[in-house]
Amino acid sequence: MGQFKAKFPDHFYWGGATAANQIEGAFDEDGKGLSAADFVEYIPKDQRTKDNAMEITSEQIRKTLSGETTARYPKREGNDFYHRYKEDIALLAEMGFTSFRFSIHWSRIFPNGYDETPNEAGLQFYDNVLDELAKYDIEPIVTLSHYETPYGLTEKYNGWVGREVIDHFVRYAETVFKRYKDKVKFWISFNEINMITISPFTGGGILSDREDNPMQAKYQGLHHQFVASALATKKLHDIIPDGKMGCMLARMSHYANTPNPEDVLKAQKENQDNLFFTDVHARGEYPKYMERFFIENDIKIVKESGDDEILKQHPVDYITISYYMSMLSSATPEGERSEGNLMNTLKNPYLEASDWGWQIDPIGLRVVLNDMYDRYQLPIFIVENGLGAYDKAGEDGSIHDDYRIDYLRKHIEQMKEAVGDGVELIGYTTWGPIDLVSMSTSEMSKRYGFVYVDKDDEGNGSLERRRKDSFYWYKKVIETNGEEL
Question: CA 82 to CA 129: how far, in whole Å?
């Protein structure tokens, strides 16, 4: 038998990924308006339940705005990237990053979301960030909406439930395309667009308690996001002819728990439920299998004339995913559970789990990449993958995170094998290269970074940046284009 050695393409993009609401801070500086993320309270672990981890109620909004609560809102603070972006980008450059994924805070550009004119100070901030990246020859990958729906749109339209939000989003997209047309080629419309069906407030600024039929509301909001993404893609191609628009999916891959055909069928259905979002983005139409789901759940998507044509004419150019774990599907789900922050799944006896209960499955990433490339035949960019863990600094300030190196090494090995299988993989940005505020729990203690940030869950600390062992390891990975792991 012949020997085959998989390797990454020569111009593979290596880097890291962040979100404005988790790093920037400065939530009320330079004209920025409030966004959905600014209402997410920090809840200590011993008080946290599935009910209070993600969704926000109208009453919580009222208490926050009236000052009746003593809650902390860590996403308003982030890790202070707004004031430290030069220092932080220099650290990314020191690691050798060739790409950096970040998001624009929509409410920095249009403070209420529906404003007629953009906020110049917000536009200038991202000019400064992009210029700093260009200085080090780091390719930006920019997400237009990463859980940052302006609160003004929630107040006025209940977020993406209102069709009017499409036009406001497209105006925002057109504004930044024109402003940064010479600086940004790779764009992503919505981060993890499937989040709107898991946490409508996080993914779409939707307060479910304002809706008579919350299930209908979130899928209607999703439809508006699909149309907005397609219209933004059209604008992008008009304004930046070589610009590329990507979609973004939180890939939640399901295995059948047993060979029982009922479990296999359940896994197939749950994989379809997840891939539905990329099916619309990449193929430009709703898949037939969703018709049954909509009927069984009394969902009637309200479309305007021309919506289907818009989706069909303006599909995405490439697909991006986050990948953290795999799950098990069972027709009779009884047994030990694995409690991930967003998912609750049967425990897979063949996998280890993170400190937060996320099942670690590197080979699953190879499976996912092959499945998705077979399905769409579009370039794939992994824009989130990483290990949230408790990191402890030694007395000398050093942070030994061999567990993170091990996690990333195993995933990169499987990515390389997927490339060898024929998958057109164009890049890899690990999640949170500099420690940031957790999306789902607003903790700082859930650390993903190569760079340690001196800040704790209560907001105390100097914000000093320190290189972890993984910093030097990832630098070598990039230097050798994934050959030295």
Answer: 9
How far apart CA 404 and CA 411 sit, in angstroms, is 11
pLDDT in tens, 69-96: 988 999 999 999 999 999 999 999 999 9
What is the extent of the structural domain holding 40? 13-479
What span, in angstroms and rounded, lies between the C-alpha atoms of 182 and 449? 30
Distance of alpha carbon 365 from its chain centroid, rounded? 16
Structure tokens at 162: 């209102």
Q: In 3D, which of 7, 5, 14 has the Cα closest to residue 381?
A: 14
Averaged pLDDT for residues 448-465: 96
Q: How far apart are CA 310 and CA 315, in angstroms?
A: 9
What pLDDT sits at residue 305?
97
Token reading at 329: 């599907």
Q: How far is CA 435 from the centre of its chain?
A: 15
Place of tokens 């996080």: 202
Q: What is the pLDDT of residues 237-268, one digit of tens each?
A: 999 999 999 999 999 999 999 999 999 999 99
Q: Is residue 102 part of a domain?
A: yes
Task: Answer yes or no: is 208 within a domain.
Answer: yes
Q: Which residues does the annotation mark as catalytic? A: 384
Reference 35, options 70, 78, 89; nearest CA is: 78
DSSP-based three-state secondary structure for 233: helix
| 3-state DSSP percent of the chain in helix, strand and coil, to 5 | 40, 15, 40
Tell whether 370 is covered by a domain: yes
In a domain, 442, yes or no: yes
- In the chain, how many domains are there? 1
CB 32 within 8 A of CB 119: yes
Do the beta carbons of residue 466 and residue 397 sit within 8 Å?
A: yes
Distance CA 451, CA 433 (A): 6
Q: Which residues lie across from 345 on neighbouring strands?
A: 338
Contact yes or no for 109/176 (Cβ under 8 A): yes
Tens digits of residue pLDDT in 378-403: 999 999 999 999 999 888 889 999 99
In contact, 94 and 435? CB cutoff 8 Å: no
CA–CA separation, 62 vs 44, rounded Å? Answer: 22
Q: Is the pTM for the entire model greater than 0.90? A: yes
CATH classification at residue 314: 3.20.20.80
DSSP string, 360-429: E-HHHHHHHHHHHHHHH-S-EEEEE----B-----TTS----HHHHHHHHHHHHHHHHHHHTT--EEEEE
Closest CA to 246 of 308, 184, 166: 184
Q: pLDDT tens for residues 16-66?
A: 999 999 999 999 999 999 999 999 999 887 777 655 557 899 999 999 999
Q: How many other CB atoms are there within 10 angstroms of residue 325's CB atom? A: 23
Pick from 470, 469, 439: nearest CA to 195:
439
Look up residue 1 and give its two tokens.
Answer: 């038998």
